[in-house]
Description:
It is built from 19 helices and six strands. With 380 residues, it is mainly alpha-helical.
Amino acid sequence: MGLITWSDDTYEIQYAGETIVLLPKEYALFQFLYTWKNRAFSRGDLLDRVWPLEAPTDRTIDDHIYRLRKKLQKWSHLLTIDTVRGVGYRLTLKEQQSLSPTVLNSDFSENIQKMITTYHGMGMGAALQTLYANQQVLGFQMDPFYATFLRFVKGDFSWFVEDKSEPMSDKRFYLFHLYHMTEMDSQKRIEVLEWAFKNSKNMPDNYQDELKITAISVYAQAKEWERAKEQLIPAREVVNRVNSPGFYLFLQAEESLLYLLMGQVNEAEKVIQRSEEILRTLPMQRELGSFTIARGLCLYHRQEIAKARLLVDEGIEVIRATKFVPHLIYAVQMILLFLKDFSYDAEWERKYKKMWAELSEEYKFDYLQKKIRAIISSPI
């Protein structure tokens, strides 16, 4: 969210290496004002937005503004919370002066781009978000692609269905993934996949490639085994052409899920083993988490329930640490679909159903699905 890095768990905000710790309502108030920076709000507006189910007084707003101003004093060069006479309060973000990227030498720019590529490939979402938030301070510019990509990574999903400024061609790929990862009905996922394929010519080439690979799991989850196996052919052609370890591991993850859902544990383990050989030299954290979970699901097939639980939980924590929200949602979905199909562990199924419900509430799955279905139904 702009220059500032936010931590919703600890109520900490960071800028240029400095951290400020806020109280929960201070954090909520500041985040709202920052989201709508340079716009004035009355005390009543702020009470409605930050204290919707409570009955505080105007004095509550004034006290919180006073404390925020005091805590944010060290960032007065960056922003101020101003009193707007006759209205209320406004957060004013000041224009920042920074070095133009052209002033910096080519080695610096090249090293920054290598760092960005590494963070992306290794699944280091928090590092990517920190770099993106501090471009102006550090004096470089990230590819515009990351403006949209990082919204997806950190779970700002509502933007994709509410924003009107970006062209639909840049968002269709993300809309497909948002529906695919939040919908448990396999036939509905296939409908959205077909919509995505139909409109894929307007997508960048790499998105078209990713769709061909992702389709494997869409068909597998619907138990359309033959279609899933047929999809392996174009997916392998993509991987051979791109020649990227990341794409190879992506395909292997889809293929292992196919075999797991088919109950072919030996085949799944062969795929996982090949992937783990790559991960020993290239420890991509998202993929490491996914294959740890897959290894756990294999152990379920072998009736080693206690060990399976440990690996599944370990994989989830590895993915959670990457700060890639979509991968966390996909992982929980995969676990639930597997446990639902095979009924190996009712207790852990309940545990992950609860986690799914929490994710659904936090990221508004029902709302997203409704909006995406409306978009799909609209004329192109």
